[in-house]
Hints:
With 202 residues, the protein is mostly helical. It has one domain. The chain has eleven helices and no strands. The radius of gyration is 16 Å and the shape is globular. It starts with a helix and ends in a 13-residue tail after the last helix. 36% of the residues are buried.
Amino acid sequence: MKTCxxxxxxxxxxxxxxxxxxxxxxxxxxxISGATxxxxxxxxxxxxxxxxxxxMLQVVRNDKDVDFFDRMFACFSDGKYxxxxxxxxxxxxxxxxxxxxxxxxxxxxxxxxxxxxYIAADNPELSSEECIHQSRMMMKGHKGxxxxxxxxxxxxxxxxxxxxxxxxxxxxxxxxxxxxxFYQDLLAKSDEKVxxxxxxxx
Length: 202
């Protein structure tokens, strides 16, 4: 596995040619997240957030033809809305239930489930439970490393507070891209084969 600095550098390189469309996509997702109620969060925001992660995975895999917005909203155009909804809802539900017990277990589980969207994108035949389970298995021994990767962005996150959150439009994509690179390394580490682009993109 790479160092936190190396993941940050890879994320920046991956985004260098597509930064503005991704920043705009991040802004749209942020506005949707802030403008919806509980039901709309479940049925709209969560599936779009899933699509955001899948789109970023394609960017990281150097898919030059990827339309970030098209992939981000794929749940509404690919006829796979029910799968996007089920997987995103189940991941959020499990994290929420663990958080109800104690905050720390909730945080730990959120990292255990962090690879769920990527796994689902690469393995459309898997159920939501299987995707979550595979994420848990993949993240065994690596949750702390991913936490430290996120923590390495703390300086930028603090600076974002002084820009009324505007800087987050650049920081969030970089963190998401770093997560996608992290997933790629976990795949290589476990000697799993992966297609060049997520199958949702077909």
